[in-house]
Write a structure and sequence with these properties.
Elements (H helix, E strand, L loop, with lengths): L6 E4 L5 H8 L4 E4 L4 H4 L6 E6 L7 H5 L6 E4 L9 H6 L3 E3 L6 H17 L1 H9 L16 E5 L3 H10 L5 E5 L11 E2 L2 H7 L2 E4 L13 H5 L5 E5 L8 H10 L2 E6 L10 H5 L3 E3 L8 H20 L15
Parallel strand pairs: 1-2, 1-3, 3-4, 4-5, 6-7, 6-9, 7-8, 9-10, 10-11, 11-12
């Protein structure tokens, strides 16, 4: 009796063309994008699991999937996966590390410009019939943008910032040199020198509330904060106090501690720009995420080397 092909569950929506390509591979594909109720009865047979950020791959979920060999995250961050539990169960975790780089970089630059020129409030006022002109904001030229975390996305932002005439500095304990003119500094020096502090660190237990009351106090007075990485990197209570006191001139958040966000006072603050975690929400980024994710699943099914394995220790766990 011939064994059935491995079952790959698509738990969160990804690019439709990528799913169709996966269906042509050496596997069965089950659609569980309707949610947890659709996913639960399939877990006992699952060989592979494709997720975005909605599905949380917890220890409990892994225990209900004894045949699981691969979790494929159609995006960069894997903080929705219990990595220790996955590794202990020999479950390999892969991601799509470059899929959203350009989209997040473009959004970041757009947010810098919006903050510098106070565009959000001016657009809103004009649409409401309030014709305010006169001096409005500042230029990016001559300013310093400081990056907390200097990985792929931050470097892509620097490439796009070149024509603006800014100075770029960065703090990243895992980076020892740069080739793009960005100066590596200590965390405190980045905070003290930057007109824009842009967060691009991974969310780890150590990085929870990386930007808190104490560190906002070390920033240049009147600086801006931009977070397009992970919401819990910023203490939102401290951020609101910084905006209210004038320590911060403005902030832009694409990510929040709780999503959808629940801090109504922060959302209502006139110098906060809030967007609904859309850094990777472009057609191109989602297409690349689907393609890269399916590429990895197919490699795993064929027994080929994986290109974006996040936990290589799972192979010898």
């Amino acid at each position: 009796m011939t064994a059935e092909p491995p079952l790959v569950i698509v738990a969160d929506p990804i690019d439709a063309a990528a799913v169709e390509r996966l269906r042509k591979g050496p596997c069965r594909v089950a659609d569980a994008t309707a949610g947890a109720a659709a996913l639960a009865p399939l877990l006992s047979e699952a060989w592979g699991l494709v997720v975005r950020s909605r599905t949380k791959v917890t220890r409990e979920l892994l225990e209900r999937a004894p045949r699981l060999s691969l979790v494929a995250r159609a995006g960069v961050g894997v903080d929705n996966v219990d990595m220790a539990a996955a590794t202990a169960r020999h479950v390999r975790v892969v991601n799509a590390p470059t899929a959203a780089t350009a989209s997040v970089a473009e959004l970041s630059v757009a947010l810098y410009v919006m903050l510098a020129r106070d565009l959000a409030s001016r657009v809103r006022a004009t649409k409401e019939g309030d014709w305010k002109r006169g001096e409005n904001g500042t230029e990016l030229a001559g300013k310093t943008v400081g990056f907390i975390g200097y990985g792929r996305i931050a470097r892509e932002i620097v490439r796009r910032l070149g024509p603006f005439g800014v100075t770029t500095v960065a703090y990243d304990p895992f980076v020892t040199s740069t080739s793009d003119g960005t100066t590596l500094l200590s965390f405190d020096d980045v905070l003290a020198r930057s007109d824009f502090v842009s967060l691009h660190a991974a969310l780890t237990p150590e990085n929870h509330h990386l930007l808190n009351t104490e560190r906002i106090g070390r920033m240049k007075r009147g600086a801006f904060v931009v977070n397009v990485a992970r919401g819990p990197l910023v203490d939102e209570v401290a951020l609101l106090e910084g905006l209210r006191s004038g320590a911060l001139r403005g902030a832009a958040l694409d990510v929040f501690e709780v999503e959808p966000p629940t801090r109504t006072e922060l959302l209502a603050h006139p110098r906060l720009i809030a967007t609904p975690h859309l850094g990777a929400s472009t057609h191109e980024a989602q297409q690349r995420a689907g393609e890269q994710t399916v590429d990895e699943v197919l490699r795993a099914l064929r027994g080929e080397p994986l290109q974006s394995l996040v936990n290589p220790e799972a192979r010898s766990a």
